[in-house]
Design a protein that fits this description.
The protein is of the alpha/beta class and about 600 residues long. It has 24 helices and 18 strands. It folds into four domains: about 130 residues, Nucleotidyltransferase, domain 5 (2-Layer Sandwich); about 160 residues, Nucleotidyltransferase, domain 5 (2-Layer Sandwich); about 220 residues, Glucose-6-phosphate isomerase like protein, domain 1 (Rossmann fold, 3-Layer(aba) Sandwich); about 45 residues, no CATH class. The chain has a six-stranded mixed sheet, with helices on both faces. The chain has a five-stranded mixed sheet with strand order 8-7-6-9-10, with helices on both faces. A five-stranded parallel sheet has the order 13-12-14-15-16, sandwiched between helices.
Length: about 600
């Protein structure tokens, strides 16, 4: 290996695909190698067995192209045939690179133990235990969520859901945990929960594990029993591996999201393991598995030092955004009475009106762009993260019932997917490639229009989506509350700045600093929602979806909407309420059909 080689490390599992691009440099004494981190990020899950080859290829294609070596280690890639198939796929993407492939067990082992002996216990969406002594490797667990994965997130979630239904069946009682699960999933009753589980995949179920830990931490004894059972099984596997390898005082390294996120699980495991392996040295991994993947690709036998790439300038760039500044009118916010707080918020709304008024010309142009795209068979996409993403999904979801549009005509895309709608998932906004991949999955074409929503104007997920959409020929609009990007999208924390040519139209809503510093769900959120109301409603008006100010294509799917349809028909056909209802019933509640009659 030579100095300056670019090595890509990839570790994929049921939750995410984590990657890191490093450059090899000689250490200060010129006798040891170091990794200098150039880029890193996360993409959607990539289990070799559960992810289709087409989907897996699309994920890998989003990774950096200019590399010399790659180590790609995925969950489910367990056999020699699997490794060969994965290597062939990687060579199609990086034909000139040296490729090493394998299971996420391998990269986890490398990251946790270097070349030393010990046991690695992995608890994420799935689970596995892997031990090494010299050249000998022993494994336990990790057979997938149907047959194994005891102690992983899927295991904990399934046990908790079964307990909920068991308590209901035996005593018709509802546990406190039941209410937590329903609230997290935005469901209303157990019947809806059962229907959700029947269509949920492994990952969706595993992502309920944090709710189990939250309940246990809050004193729920039944949830604590489930956690203890998961720890017990993982300890049992660890003891079996230690016995087969004759490790009397093994180093046991814990990796995976459950151990990293929830100290209660680490404590439960450590306490149980000490009973049968009192001399075991339990620790958590200091390096991420994707660095282990890069380490294996480097084919180095020595310990690798990792030198992080500093990004102070990028952080300063974000801090300079107007939406991150302090508002002088609310510097004594904690001293105000409730009445004074209300008055302050009401007064602050004038900045929303001013911002919308100043952006009137750009909003007009946005209506024209969207209407033209929809008229020509295109679709409208809203892209956002956090509050911006939720606002986009909200507006998109209202279009079908209001204007009788097909559900795919206007789509809201939020970083982190459906889970981010009701639980905070802010970290997912930092991945440009995930945004690009979201556009690819939805097949964005040149007839479509994509509206990126980011208060700061710098969210990587959004800018990555806009860049990919533009490369597909789609029209692109950036909706921001940071005037600094009005002259062209500044990518800020991006791997590479997004050029102004990526954006066809920038709409800048200059609402100023928030009353609660950085909380863009306030004025920025209000201005964004109104702007989307204007764009989507205005486009539908241009497309002839209203008569006067009445909806003429609404879906009559509820008592309220049927009543509204009757009143619309009565108004437009100058008949009484009863006659209007009879007309609608006779036409199968086709409002447009009646209005179109002579």
């Amino acid at each position: 290996m030579k100095p300056g080689e670019r090595i890509l490390g990839v570790e994929g599992g049921g939750t995410k695909t984590a990657w890191v691009l490093v450059e090899t440099v000689l250490g200060a004494n010129a006798s040891a190698w170091e990794f200098r981190v150039l880029e890193q990020g996360k993409l959607p899950a990539s289990n070799f067995r559960l992810t289709s080859p087409e989907r897996l290829r699309a994920i890998l294609t989003e990774l950096p192209k200019q590399i010399d070596r790659a180590g790609v280690f995925l969950a489910g890639c367990g056999t020699e045939e699997d490794r060969c198939a994965l290597k062939q796929m990687c060579l199609e993407i990086w034909p000139n690179a040296k490729i090493v492939t394998g299971s996420d067990r391998d990269s986890g082992l490398a990251a946790a133990l270097d070349q030393g002996d010990g046991i690695v216990v992995n608890a994420g969406s799935g689970s596995s235990v892997t031990g090494r002594r010299g050249e000998r490797i022993e494994r336990a667990g990790g057979w997938g969520h149907i047959l194994g994965d005891a102690g992983g997130g899927y295991f904990l979630s399934i046990h908790a859901l079964r307990l909920v239904l068991r308590e209901h069946d035996l005593g018709r009682s509802e546990m406190d945990f039941t209410a937590k699960i329903l609230r997290v999933l935005s469901l209303n009753n157990l019947d809806e929960l059962v229907r959700w589980v029947q269509t949920a995949d492994k990952m969706e179920l595993a992502m309920l594990a944090p709710v189990v830990f939250e309940a246990a931490t809050g004193g729920d004894g039944r949830m604590m029993e489930i956690i203890e059972e998961g720890a017990r099984v993982l300890c049992e596997y660890s003891e079996a591996v230690a016995s087969r390898l004759h490790l009397l005082a093994p180093k046991v390294v814990l990796i995976g999201g459950l151990f990293q996120r929830d100290s209660i699980y680490t404590h439960a495991f450590r306490r149980r393991l000490k009973k049968n392996l009192p001399d075991a040295r339990v620790t958590t991994a200091e390096r991420a598995p994707e660095l282990g993947a890069a380490w294996l690709a480097a084919e180095l036998g020595d310990h690798i030092t990792v030198r992080e790439k500093l990004a102070r300038g990028e952080i300063d760039s974000l801090a300079a955004a107007l939406t991150e500044q302090r508002n002088p009118r609310s510097e004594n916010l904690e001293k105000l009475s409730p009445r004074e707080v209300v008055q302050l918020f009401v007064d602050e709304e004038k900045f929303v009106q001013d911002a919308l008024r100043d952006a009137a010309a750009d909003l007009t142009r946005a209506i024209e762009i969207v209407a033209e795209a929809l008229r020509n068979g295109g679709r409208l996409f809203y892209i956002g993260a956090g509050s911006s993403g939720r606002i986009g999904v909200l507006d998109a979801s209202e279009i079908p019932p209001t204007f009788g549009a097909p559900p795919d005509l206007v789509q809201g895309v939020i970083a982190g997917g459906v889970t981010a709608l009701h639980r905070s998932a802010e970290a997912v906004e930092d991945d440009e490639t995930a945004g690009a991949l979201a556009m690819q999955r939805r097949g964005v074409k040149d007839r479509d229009v994509v509206v990126g929503i980011t208060a700061s104007g710098r969210t990587p997920f959004v800018l990555g989506a806009l860049s990919r959409a533009k490369s597909s020929g789609a029209k692109t609009i950036l909706l921001t509350c940071n005037p600094a990007v009005a002259g062209g999208a500044d990518a800020g924390r991006h791997r590479s700045p997004t050029p102004a040519t990526t954006i066809d139209l920038v709409i800048s809503l200059e609402v100023g600093p928030e009353l609660l510093t950085g909380s863009t769900r306030l004025k920025a959120g209000t201005a964004t929602k109104v702007a989307l109301n204007i764009i989507s409603t205005g486009a539908m008006v241009v497309l002839g979806k209203v008569r006067g100010n009445l909806m003429i294509d609404l879906h009559t799917t509820s008592t309220k909407l049927r009543d509204r349809a009757v009143r619309v028909v009565a108004e437009l056909t100058q008949c009484d309420y009863r006659s209007a209802r009879e007309k609608l019933e006779a036409s199968g509640w086709n409002l447009r059909d009646i209005i179109g009659r002579p």
